[in-house]
Specification:
Elements (H helix, E strand, L loop, with lengths): L8 H22 L34 E4 L19 E4 L2 E4 L4 E4 L2 E4 L4 E4 L2 E5 L2 E5 L2 E4 L2
Antiparallel strand pairs: 1-8, 2-5, 3-4, 6-9, 7-8
Length: 141
């Protein structure tokens, strides 16, 4: 027979309870006592809410993109729709160079970003040609 001390401590108490019950239960049953084995309590479950990671908005660094051969076309006349509720900024339309032609990009209302100001996209003429500066959110202050 294996001695109880040879089992890990976690199992000793369970083993001792089983041995005690198996030795005492027949005597109690003969005496007319109803013996009922109680199941162990369910394991504890700790529920913690899972939150999504915080969203960090970093401004894009200024990037100079492409050199076009011909200057961009004149901006189109755009009628903006009614201004949305406070907290929105108008992102002006602009001409984008695709490498072979210009494409008109429509303007839109975008939600403001606290602590940032929007610098619109624009074209600049340099000695080597026209350079496009994309719009970007820049820190205020």
């Amino acid at each position: 027979m294996t001695h109880i001390s040879s089992f890990p401590i976690r199992r000793r108490s369970l083993l001792a309870a089983v041995l005690t019950f198996s030795l005492v239960a027949p005597a109690l049953a003969q005496a007319g006592v109803l013996v009922v084995a109680r199941p162990p309590p369910p394991p504890r479950v700790i529920v913690r809410p899972v939150y999504p990671p915080p969203v960090v908005v970093m401004p894009a660094p200024p990037v100079r993109v492409g050199v076009a051969i011909a200057p961009p076309p004149a901006p189109r006349v755009v009628t903006t729709v009614a201004k949305p509720p406070p907290g929105y900024v108008w992102i002006a339309p602009y001409w984008r160079w695709t490498g072979s032609t210009y494409v008109w990009i429509e303007g839109e209302w975008a939600p403001e970003r606290p602590g940032y100001a929007y610098s619109p996209a624009h074209w600049s003429q340099t000695p080597s040609g026209w350079i496009f500066q994309p719009g970007a959110w820049t820190p205020v202050g």
